[in-house]
Structure prediction request, 196 residues.
Amino acid sequence: MNDETQASRRKATKRMQIVQAAFKLFTENGFYATGVDLIMQQSKVSKRTMYIYFPTKNELIAAVLEHYRAEYERKLSGLLARDDLSSREKILAIFEDAERWFGNVHFHGCLAVNAMGEFDGKDPAIETACRMFKAWELGVFQALVKDLPVQYPEDLAFKLLVLLEGLGAIAQVMKQPCPVDIEQMVVNLMDCHSIA
Prediction:
């Protein structure tokens, strides 16, 4: 391995170290409440190193949002690639996983929604990262519903996203398990669109 390759790997590792520390802090404390000094302390980097990789806090936030989307995409990729599950079963599995996530004591809401709440109208790069995350989520549902025998598949995909987002928002605020059977809500929603 040559020196240039080693340097490139070290840079990628250092950048990821900062992003992961910031991700944890932003998730737990919010964006405005998390200072750059705390991120530097948690990621064990100097101010100089921090600003080499992220000249502004907002650039770091956009990178953290991209990391959040990539991690969620990586997590879902195994499920989406399974040939032994129908698209309907994959949709139900997404909601089953979400229900577990929403019930976790470390759940603080969707990071993209939280970021949009703090930065709407203030930073176009952060807004774009948030919109890209939600567009990706919608795209997952759009790809899955196209394989279902349903009427108005685009409407169904959007309704599934709204249901997922609403459940997440309620879980964030209420801090208790959903009193309604989530799987049954999803089944009912899909059945309403069924043409079979």
User: Anything to note?
Assistant: Residues 3-29 form the longest helix (27 residues). The chain has two domains: 1-55, 57-193.
